[in-house]
Amino acid sequence: GIPRSPTPVRLRRLADAAASRRESRMASLRNAVKRVTHKERAQPASRAKLGLLEKHKDYVERAQDFHRKVKRINNLRKKAAEKNPDEFYFGMVNAKTKNGVHVEERRDGSEKLTHSEVSLMKSQDLSYLHMKRAVDEKKAGRLQDQLHLLTENPMNKHTIFLDDEKQIQNFDAAEHFDTAPELAGRAFNRPRKSQLASDEVLTGPSNMKEMKKAERQREAKYRELSQRLKRGKQLTRVMERKQTEKNVMGKGRKRKVADSEGGKPPVYKWQKKRQK
Question: Closest Cα to residue 222, out of 134, 132, 157, 155?
Protein backbone atom coordinates (compact mmCIF):
# COMPACT_ATOMS: atom_id res chain seq x y z
CA GLY A 1 0.00 0.00 0.00
CA ILE A 2 0.89 3.64 -0.20
CA PRO A 3 2.57 4.86 3.08
CA ARG A 4 0.55 7.51 4.83
CA SER A 5 2.11 10.84 5.72
CA PRO A 6 2.68 11.37 9.50
CA THR A 7 0.06 13.37 11.33
CA PRO A 8 0.92 16.66 13.06
CA VAL A 9 0.65 14.98 16.48
CA ARG A 10 3.14 12.27 15.48
CA LEU A 11 5.54 14.90 14.08
CA ARG A 12 5.36 16.83 17.35
CA ARG A 13 6.14 13.69 19.37
CA LEU A 14 9.12 12.86 17.18
CA ALA A 15 10.44 16.41 17.54
CA ASP A 16 10.05 16.29 21.35
CA ALA A 17 11.89 12.96 21.54
CA ALA A 18 14.81 14.31 19.47
CA ALA A 19 14.96 17.45 21.61
CA SER A 20 15.04 15.40 24.85
CA ARG A 21 17.90 13.25 23.48
CA ARG A 22 19.89 16.39 22.62
CA GLU A 23 19.24 17.85 26.09
CA SER A 24 20.38 14.65 27.80
CA ARG A 25 23.63 14.67 25.81
CA MET A 26 24.15 18.35 26.65
CA ALA A 27 23.42 17.70 30.34
CA SER A 28 26.09 14.99 30.52
CA LEU A 29 28.61 17.34 28.91
CA ARG A 30 27.57 20.15 31.25
CA ASN A 31 28.26 17.96 34.30
CA ALA A 32 31.70 17.05 32.98
CA VAL A 33 32.82 20.69 32.88
CA LYS A 34 34.21 22.05 36.17
CA ARG A 35 31.99 24.74 37.63
CA VAL A 36 32.94 27.82 39.61
CA THR A 37 32.50 27.42 43.34
CA HIS A 38 30.68 30.43 44.73
CA LYS A 39 31.85 31.12 48.29
CA GLU A 40 30.21 33.40 50.81
CA ARG A 41 32.41 36.25 51.94
CA ALA A 42 33.73 36.45 55.47
CA GLN A 43 33.29 39.32 57.89
CA PRO A 44 35.32 42.37 56.75
CA ALA A 45 38.16 43.47 58.99
CA SER A 46 36.40 46.77 59.73
CA ARG A 47 33.42 44.84 61.16
CA ALA A 48 35.38 42.16 63.01
CA LYS A 49 34.16 43.56 66.35
CA LEU A 50 30.62 42.46 65.44
CA GLY A 51 31.60 38.77 65.41
CA LEU A 52 31.24 36.15 62.70
CA LEU A 53 29.17 36.98 59.63
CA GLU A 54 26.03 34.89 59.49
CA LYS A 55 25.93 32.57 56.49
CA HIS A 56 22.84 31.36 54.68
CA LYS A 57 22.84 27.94 56.36
CA ASP A 58 23.09 29.65 59.76
CA TYR A 59 20.09 31.80 58.87
CA VAL A 60 18.12 28.73 57.80
CA GLU A 61 18.77 26.97 61.11
CA ARG A 62 17.91 30.10 63.10
CA ALA A 63 14.70 30.63 61.13
CA GLN A 64 13.62 27.01 61.54
CA ASP A 65 14.25 27.17 65.28
CA PHE A 66 12.28 30.42 65.53
CA HIS A 67 9.32 28.98 63.62
CA ARG A 68 9.34 25.83 65.80
CA LYS A 69 9.12 27.99 68.93
CA VAL A 70 6.36 30.15 67.45
CA LYS A 71 4.41 27.03 66.49
CA ARG A 72 4.81 25.56 69.98
CA ILE A 73 3.64 28.80 71.62
CA ASN A 74 0.62 28.96 69.30
CA ASN A 75 -0.28 25.37 70.15
CA LEU A 76 -0.07 26.14 73.88
CA ARG A 77 -2.24 29.24 73.42
CA LYS A 78 -4.77 27.17 71.50
CA LYS A 79 -4.86 24.52 74.24
CA ALA A 80 -5.29 27.21 76.91
CA ALA A 81 -8.09 28.86 74.96
CA GLU A 82 -9.92 25.58 74.33
CA LYS A 83 -9.38 24.19 77.83
CA ASN A 84 -12.41 22.73 79.55
CA PRO A 85 -12.70 24.19 83.10
CA ASP A 86 -14.54 21.04 84.23
CA GLU A 87 -11.82 18.70 82.95
CA PHE A 88 -10.55 16.17 85.51
CA TYR A 89 -8.27 13.16 85.53
CA PHE A 90 -6.82 11.27 88.46
CA GLY A 91 -3.30 12.57 87.87
CA MET A 92 -4.49 15.94 89.15
CA VAL A 93 -4.82 14.52 92.66
CA ASN A 94 -1.02 14.22 93.13
CA ALA A 95 -0.02 17.19 90.96
CA LYS A 96 -0.01 20.94 91.50
CA THR A 97 1.60 24.14 90.27
CA LYS A 98 4.12 25.80 92.57
CA ASN A 99 5.51 29.21 91.53
CA GLY A 100 4.49 28.50 87.94
CA VAL A 101 6.29 25.13 87.90
CA HIS A 102 4.44 21.83 87.56
CA VAL A 103 5.23 19.64 90.59
CA GLU A 104 4.04 16.06 91.06
CA GLU A 105 4.07 14.48 94.49
CA ARG A 106 5.85 11.20 95.02
CA ARG A 107 3.58 8.21 95.42
CA ASP A 108 5.97 5.90 97.27
CA GLY A 109 5.18 7.57 100.59
CA SER A 110 8.77 8.57 101.31
CA GLU A 111 7.82 12.17 102.13
CA LYS A 112 5.30 11.00 104.75
CA LEU A 113 7.84 8.93 106.71
CA THR A 114 9.22 10.34 109.93
CA HIS A 115 12.92 10.67 110.75
CA SER A 116 12.84 7.64 113.04
CA GLU A 117 11.09 5.51 110.40
CA VAL A 118 13.72 6.37 107.78
CA SER A 119 16.48 5.54 110.28
CA LEU A 120 14.81 2.20 111.03
CA MET A 121 14.60 1.40 107.30
CA LYS A 122 18.31 2.13 106.87
CA SER A 123 19.06 -0.18 109.81
CA GLN A 124 17.03 -2.92 108.14
CA ASP A 125 18.92 -2.34 104.90
CA LEU A 126 22.22 -2.71 106.76
CA SER A 127 21.03 -5.94 108.39
CA TYR A 128 20.03 -7.35 105.00
CA LEU A 129 23.39 -6.39 103.47
CA HIS A 130 25.22 -7.97 106.43
CA MET A 131 23.26 -11.19 105.90
CA LYS A 132 23.97 -11.30 102.14
CA ARG A 133 27.67 -10.63 102.64
CA ALA A 134 27.87 -13.37 105.29
CA VAL A 135 26.22 -15.84 102.88
CA ASP A 136 28.65 -14.96 100.10
CA GLU A 137 31.67 -15.19 102.42
CA LYS A 138 30.55 -18.60 103.67
CA LYS A 139 30.02 -19.98 100.16
CA ALA A 140 33.30 -18.47 98.98
CA GLY A 141 35.08 -20.15 101.91
CA ARG A 142 33.60 -23.52 100.97
CA LEU A 143 34.75 -23.08 97.36
CA GLN A 144 38.25 -22.16 98.50
CA ASP A 145 38.39 -25.28 100.66
CA GLN A 146 37.37 -27.41 97.66
CA LEU A 147 39.62 -25.79 95.06
CA HIS A 148 42.71 -24.81 97.09
CA LEU A 149 43.42 -22.34 94.26
CA LEU A 150 44.71 -25.15 92.06
CA THR A 151 46.60 -23.93 88.99
CA GLU A 152 49.32 -25.20 86.71
CA ASN A 153 51.82 -22.88 88.38
CA PRO A 154 51.51 -22.96 92.21
CA MET A 155 50.73 -19.61 93.79
CA ASN A 156 52.42 -20.50 97.08
CA LYS A 157 55.98 -21.62 97.85
CA HIS A 158 57.08 -24.57 99.91
CA THR A 159 60.40 -23.78 101.61
CA ILE A 160 62.47 -26.70 102.95
CA PHE A 161 65.28 -25.97 105.39
CA LEU A 162 68.43 -28.14 105.35
CA ASP A 163 71.47 -28.23 107.60
CA ASP A 164 74.47 -28.03 105.26
CA GLU A 165 75.56 -27.69 101.64
CA LYS A 166 75.96 -31.44 101.19
CA GLN A 167 72.30 -32.05 101.95
CA ILE A 168 71.35 -29.27 99.53
CA GLN A 169 73.36 -30.87 96.70
CA ASN A 170 71.97 -34.36 97.40
CA PHE A 171 68.37 -33.19 97.98
CA ASP A 172 65.73 -35.23 96.16
CA ALA A 173 62.17 -33.84 96.23
CA ALA A 174 60.58 -37.22 95.39
CA GLU A 175 62.38 -38.91 98.28
CA HIS A 176 61.58 -36.05 100.66
CA PHE A 177 57.85 -36.10 99.89
CA ASP A 178 57.79 -39.91 99.60
CA THR A 179 56.15 -39.86 96.18
CA ALA A 180 56.87 -40.73 92.57
CA PRO A 181 59.35 -38.51 90.67
CA GLU A 182 56.61 -37.59 88.17
CA LEU A 183 54.47 -36.16 91.00
CA ALA A 184 57.21 -34.35 92.91
CA GLY A 185 56.65 -31.03 91.11
CA ARG A 186 52.94 -30.88 91.92
CA ALA A 187 51.45 -28.60 94.56
CA PHE A 188 48.28 -30.74 94.82
CA ASN A 189 47.16 -34.34 94.28
CA ARG A 190 50.54 -35.70 95.35
CA PRO A 191 49.92 -39.14 96.94
CA ARG A 192 52.63 -41.04 98.79
CA LYS A 193 54.21 -44.27 97.53
CA SER A 194 52.25 -46.31 100.07
CA GLN A 195 49.01 -44.81 98.76
CA LEU A 196 50.06 -45.50 95.16
CA ALA A 197 50.79 -49.15 96.03
CA SER A 198 47.40 -49.66 97.73
CA ASP A 199 44.08 -50.15 95.96
CA GLU A 200 42.51 -47.14 97.67
CA VAL A 201 44.08 -44.61 95.33
CA LEU A 202 41.52 -42.44 93.63
CA THR A 203 41.85 -42.65 89.89
CA GLY A 204 41.29 -39.67 87.62
CA PRO A 205 39.14 -39.40 84.49
CA SER A 206 39.30 -42.47 82.31
CA ASN A 207 38.98 -40.69 78.95
CA MET A 208 39.38 -37.28 77.34
CA LYS A 209 35.64 -36.50 77.50
CA GLU A 210 35.50 -36.92 81.27
CA MET A 211 38.70 -34.91 81.64
CA LYS A 212 37.24 -31.97 79.67
CA LYS A 213 34.03 -32.18 81.70
CA ALA A 214 35.99 -32.04 84.96
CA GLU A 215 38.01 -29.09 83.63
CA ARG A 216 34.81 -27.19 82.76
CA GLN A 217 33.38 -27.85 86.21
CA ARG A 218 36.55 -26.61 87.85
CA GLU A 219 36.56 -23.43 85.71
CA ALA A 220 32.90 -22.82 86.60
CA LYS A 221 33.73 -23.07 90.29
CA TYR A 222 36.64 -20.63 89.87
CA ARG A 223 34.30 -18.16 88.10
CA GLU A 224 31.75 -18.51 90.89
CA LEU A 225 34.44 -17.95 93.49
CA SER A 226 35.74 -14.78 91.79
CA GLN A 227 32.18 -13.45 91.39
CA ARG A 228 31.36 -14.02 95.05
CA LEU A 229 34.58 -12.35 96.19
CA LYS A 230 33.87 -9.40 93.89
CA ARG A 231 30.28 -9.14 95.12
CA GLY A 232 31.53 -9.23 98.72
CA LYS A 233 33.70 -6.16 98.05
CA GLN A 234 30.76 -4.37 96.41
CA LEU A 235 28.48 -5.15 99.35
CA THR A 236 31.12 -3.82 101.73
CA ARG A 237 31.20 -0.51 99.86
CA VAL A 238 27.40 -0.27 99.87
CA MET A 239 27.34 -1.02 103.59
CA GLU A 240 29.90 1.70 104.26
CA ARG A 241 27.79 4.21 102.31
CA LYS A 242 24.58 3.16 104.11
CA GLN A 243 26.30 3.38 107.49
CA THR A 244 27.56 6.87 106.64
CA GLU A 245 24.05 7.98 105.65
CA LYS A 246 22.68 6.62 108.92
CA ASN A 247 25.38 8.38 110.93
CA VAL A 248 24.71 11.69 109.15
CA MET A 249 21.03 11.42 110.08
CA GLY A 250 22.00 11.21 113.74
CA LYS A 251 22.46 14.04 116.22
CA GLY A 252 25.44 16.34 116.50
CA ARG A 253 26.97 19.11 114.43
CA LYS A 254 29.09 17.88 111.58
CA ARG A 255 30.81 19.05 108.42
CA LYS A 256 31.99 17.27 105.30
CA VAL A 257 35.75 16.84 105.14
CA ALA A 258 36.09 15.00 101.81
CA ASP A 259 33.76 14.05 98.98
CA SER A 260 33.10 10.50 97.87
CA GLU A 261 35.63 9.16 95.38
CA GLY A 262 36.51 5.73 94.10
CA GLY A 263 33.23 4.25 95.32
CA LYS A 264 33.97 5.22 98.92
CA PRO A 265 31.47 7.27 100.94
CA PRO A 266 32.15 10.93 101.84
CA VAL A 267 34.02 11.70 105.05
CA TYR A 268 32.35 13.74 107.80
CA LYS A 269 33.78 15.18 110.97
CA TRP A 270 31.60 15.63 114.04
CA GLN A 271 32.08 18.36 116.59
CA LYS A 272 33.52 17.10 119.86
CA LYS A 273 31.01 17.02 122.67
CA ARG A 274 31.83 16.63 126.31
CA GLN A 275 30.31 13.51 127.83
CA LYS A 276 28.80 13.86 131.28
Answer: 155
